[in-house]
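User: For documentation purposes, I need each entry recorded in a consistent format: the amino acid sequence on its own, followed directly by the corresponding structure tokens. There are two entries in this batch. Please keep commentary to a minimum and don't merge the entries.

Assistant: Recorded as requested. Entry 1:
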Amino acid sequence: MQTEPAHRRNRRAKGWDRRDRLLQVQVFSEPDPASEFLKEPSAEGEFERQEDAFRELVTSDGSSPYPAAAGRYHLYISLACPWASRTLIVRNLKGLQDAVGVTVVDPIRDDRGWAFGDGPGHTRDPVNGFAFLSEAYVATDRNFEGRVTVPVLWDKQTRRIVNNSEDDICRMFNDVFHAFGNREVDLFPKDIEGEHAKLAAFIYDGLVGRCSLRSMSWRRDWMSTYCFGVWFVVMYAWRRQ
């Protein structure tokens, strides 16, 4: 009886066999016309960010249908997305772990988009039992045809998405949810608001808009150098604080 090689056994135990198969599907297979991947790059191979589909706000003054409340809202994220990870960081820095629940999707996508499932660092959906995050989008707008993105702030009471803009979600966590967390932490100080906005735009344009999904090797090489330059500027700005 033939014994499985140790290196194959280790890769299978860590889930790498599944990742290898998905990579082969994504890179070498003809993509499905409905694939999420086909909606992401431009003709030049750059990542194209779509407009956020849901921009309603949680408020503390009754000016929206979504009042600030502990336990009412749930955050869906992927740790593979830096912008979704930002919302998790803000949630934790503000001490909102008990006020806003969070579920992490599988970081490896197939043509169907972000999926829920048990694995290292990600779980099934305990709130709605969704198999795919796309179900949350369709539950909110049955005619939605855009790309399904993270993060998502979900209202458990109305069973719909409130907001899928990471910047909106971060600001809501910082402002209207402050009563449920650490009031002493202000992650959006007014005195540096202008500088903050410029740096955020620079990071997004440099690290996501230009450095993602490059299809030509010479473009990737050139943009790798550009990315290091962007990080140098970011680190310099951080050390000045």
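Entry 2:
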Amino acid sequence: MNHFLDTICTGSDMMTASKLGQRRQVVIPREICEQLGLQVGDFVEVNLRGGVVVVTPKKLVDADLVLTPKEEILVRKGREALRRGEYVTLEELDHKLDRPALKRGRQTTQKTPS
């Protein structure tokens, strides 16, 4: 069964008529998917605006890849320092890492005889 009734291309715009399936499914033409970089399984957002259905590609982000509020603060401070010209070169960092670590004495509490 052919889902496409008509395809009209003008410049960079493409209009395709599709048939609504039994389960309210609409096929997005291959050419449009390729232009948008959409692949099978990708998510799209569907909105109604002034009587027009608008389909927008959506990229979901893994929760493990999202910064915590504390990490966001650190990143913001780092960017601000870079804007002020405050940074450490890789050579300086390597030099600091090559130096022996400072030895700190272990603090212990002394027992008092009972």
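Summary note for entry 2:
The beta strands are 4-10, 13-18, 43-49, 52-58.
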